[in-house]
Amino acid sequence: MSVETLKPTGSDPLNFFWFIPTSGDGPYLGTDDFYRAPDHAYLREIATAVDRLGFGGVLIPTGANCEDSWITATALATATERLKFLVAIRPGTATPAFYARLASAVDRVSNGRLLINIVVGGAPKELAGDGIFLPHDARYDHAEEFFEVFETIAKGGTATLDGKYIKAEGAKLNFPFVQKPRPPLYFGGSSDAAIEFSAGRTDKYLTWGEPPAQVAEKIATVRAAAAAKGREVTFGIRLHFIVRETDEEAFAAADKLISRLSDETIAAAQEKFRNESDSVGQHRMAALHGGRRDNLYVAPNLWAGVGLVRGGAGTALVGSPETIAARLREYQALGIDTVIGSGYPHLEEAYKVAELLFPVLGLGRRSGEVISGDFGTGAGLGARPRRIAGLAAAV
């Protein structure tokens, strides 16, 4: 099908973000073959590409195996024009006042392009390395006190709190945010404690890419919890993407992604997830595939192969642009308005998503001309240039 004939589908267009791989990148999972280090030049290359291609923002992950997300966001903000940066606050690694100053600075440097991702969970062993020794549910009680102070000073007030976990006296923020009253708060978590916290504090709830029926159940639970507190929450989903011109090409690309992955590597990764993580969401991801590679399609076009070795988001939508668009419309009908995507390697897959999938979703703008030459009509034989479907930044 010609790109020019594709029409936008669904109701309101999805907000479509991409991922900055600050722990490294490559074309194969579970191997160092063709590994790409997360040096600044490569991360900048991805950021400038997705800014130009029309992605609305990027998620920058946090963790001991990642380059620092705040410094990375600041560096990439100076290299981009429209891209928003979803950056993590992990309560317990610094005080609310310190994080407020940090976030305000990045919001100002980026001219209002900061989004805040609240990360409370994680592996207890890694958290202990950061000086966090609280059990699972207590971390959310701690986060509640943390954001009581953060919210007060972010909105221009002065905060004093003598809490069980957080103590602050006369905390304030002297350099205000560009965004008012402060940047939006994103959050993801599947436990009861996480949902209760999200319902009272956050603006957008994020789920990993579970089958639609499970996502529907989770959305209903979060909506009810938020309504009980007199609030409304919007919803996003975190997914990998393997999009090709045909379903068959996409299925083959998925197989290739794990073709160098050994059974021993899978077993070691799954054991680590079981023994070192107390994340309910991580356990839900692992349960989709059970560590087995013989039945990875857990819903139509929803492939769990990434989760065989990757922690966190472990599912990908696999197929042609039309097929994946249909799957995304199913999630959109449940209430999802934002997609945070990724693919291996992240530079090339960003182009594939933007060039193949975006036109079907009604994202991007038509612009540009084919110039007569190797890639133009007539291959340099004097044919008149024609308009083609190009991609510019979505607003």
Automatic annotation (TrEMBL):
Its EC number is 1.14.14.5. One of its GO terms (biological process) is alkanesulfonate catabolic process. It is an enzyme of class 1 (oxidoreductase). The keyword Oxidoreductase applies. Signal peptide: none annotated. It comes from Methyloraptor flagellatus. Keywords: Flavoprotein, FMN, Monooxygenase, Oxidoreductase. Catalyzes the desulfonation of aliphatic sulfonates. It holds the Pfam family Bac_luciferase. InterPro entries: Alkanesulphonate_mOase_FMN-dep, Luciferase-like_dom, Luciferase-like_sf, SsuD_RutA_monooxygenase. Belongs to the SsuD family. It catalyses: an alkanesulfonate + FMNH2 + O2 = an aldehyde + FMN + sulfite + H2O + 2 H(+). This is Alkanesulfonate monooxygenase. The lineage of its organism: Bacteria, Pseudomonadati, Pseudomonadota, Alphaproteobacteria, Hyphomicrobiales. One of its GO terms (molecular function) is alkanesulfonate monooxygenase activity. Residues 15-337 form the Luciferase-like domain. The gene is ssuD.
